[in-house]
Amino acid sequence: MRKDWDTYFMDIAYMVSTRSRCPRRHVGAVLVQGKKLLGTAYNGAPMGVPDCEEAGCMIAEEYELKIIDGREEMVKKQRCVRTIHAEQNLLLFTDRNDREGSIVYVTDQPCWTCANMLANSGVVEIVYHRPYPKDSEKVITMMEHKGITFRHLAGYQPPNDTVMSVSN
Ligand SMILES: [Zn+2]
Ligand SMILES: [Zn+2]
Questions:
Q1: Domain contains 136
Q2: pTM, whole model, 2 decimals?
Q3: What is the CATH number of the domain that holds 133?
């Protein structure tokens, strides 16, 4: 059976994500203009700089307020700050004029910083697969304000061998 466009471009985003060398998270993003692929990117250290496989992840710890069994609790979270996020790399390597009216397919729901940058990038639609609950609420509100279509591809299944297990 022929793949629909959503599946087609999300499959490519997952293929791209396998290039990432951060063992904590593999994220891929693609830029699509009128069904044409204009760019691909994944999360990684700047070119020529030791990456997570060579130098290890650069861990930042932060506390997050979570509701657990109806009670507020501070939960310690770790994330890797060595990498430039896939969405940010996508913006660094594509042209502003090309982006006007385009769609971004990204394997993971963008974090707040990436969402903020995408909102100012000319992109009119963002399609993601894996949810990222931490920033979800404020990102969705911002996209509504901005009039950007923000779509969760809920029933989607990534291609075999493109998904790594991530430690959080
Ligand atoms: Zn890392
Ligand atoms: Zn991000």
A1: yes
A2: 0.91
A3: 3.40.140.10
Nearest to 55 by CA among 45, 69, 65: 45
Consult the annotation and say whether 80 binds a ligand. Answer: no
| Enclosing domain of residue 32 | 5-44+84-156
Low-confidence spans in the chain with pLDDT less than 50 = 167-168
Give 2 Cα–ligand 1 centroid separation in angstroms.
36
According to the model, what pLDDT value does residue 165 have? 61
Q: What is the per-residue pLDDT for 139? A: 97
CA–centroid distance, 78 to ligand 1, in Å, is 11
**From CA 98, how far away is CA 48, in angstroms rounded?**
27
Q: Catalogue the active-site residues.
A: 87
Number of domains in the chain: 1
Q: How far is the CA of 21 from the centre of ligand 1 (A)?
A: 7
